[in-house]
Amino acid sequence: MSFRILNRVANFRPMFIHHLRYSNKKYLDTHEWFIPEGNQIKLGLSEKGLELMNDIVFIDDEIDTEQVFERGEPICAIESVKAASELYAPEKCRVLEVNSELVEDLDGLNTNPEEETNWILKLESVE
């Protein structure tokens, strides 16, 4: 009997192991997540943000990459069937890249917004 219990404990895998990979993921009060990677930042929409907005139908991808955004300043518009909102800068930055694959096919964002591949913007920190 004790061997069975020990064997089950030895084979136990935490259910939330995927969250351990994102130990450097941070969240804004405006319901975005971001992952700093050196001087670059991936920015996405959190589960709570998706829950509040419902299905995302449009992300504005026409962003001036030369513009420097201050912390808390809106970067781009995001629209759903329920509401319109904006994504905000987590710190002083400029936009390097928009995830064009995601913008063209929003299914991934609408099903799993927390997945790291479902980032919306890649930003560069500006000091």
**Average predicted confidence as pLDDT:** 85
Number of strands: 8
Alpha plus pi helix count: 5
Roughly what fraction of the amino acids lie in strands?
Answer: 25-35%
Largest sheet: 5 strands, antiparallel
Unreliable spans: 1-20
Task: Give me the CATH superfamily.
Answer: RNA polymerase II/Efflux pump adaptor protein, barrel-sandwich hybrid domain
Give me the side-by-side strand order of the main sheet: 1-2-3-8-7
Give the overall silhouette: globular
Per CATH, what is the topology? OB fold (Dihydrolipoamide Acetyltransferase, E2P)
- Distance from N terminus to C terminus (CA atoms, Å) equals 61 Å
Indicate how many domains the architecture comprises.
1
Query: What is the CATH level 1 assignment?
Result: Mainly Beta
What does this structure look like?
With about 130 residues, this protein is α+β, with helices and mostly antiparallel strands. It has a single domain (about 25-125), classed as OB fold (Dihydrolipoamide Acetyltransferase, E2P), CATH 2.40.50. It is built from 5 helices and 8 strands, in the order H-H-E-E-E-H-E-E-E-E-H-H-E. The strands form 2 sheets. It has a 5-stranded antiparallel sheet. It has a 3-stranded antiparallel sheet with strand order 4-5-6, with no helix packed on it. Strand 1 and strand 2 form a beta hairpin. It is globular, with a radius of gyration of 18 Å. The termini are far apart.
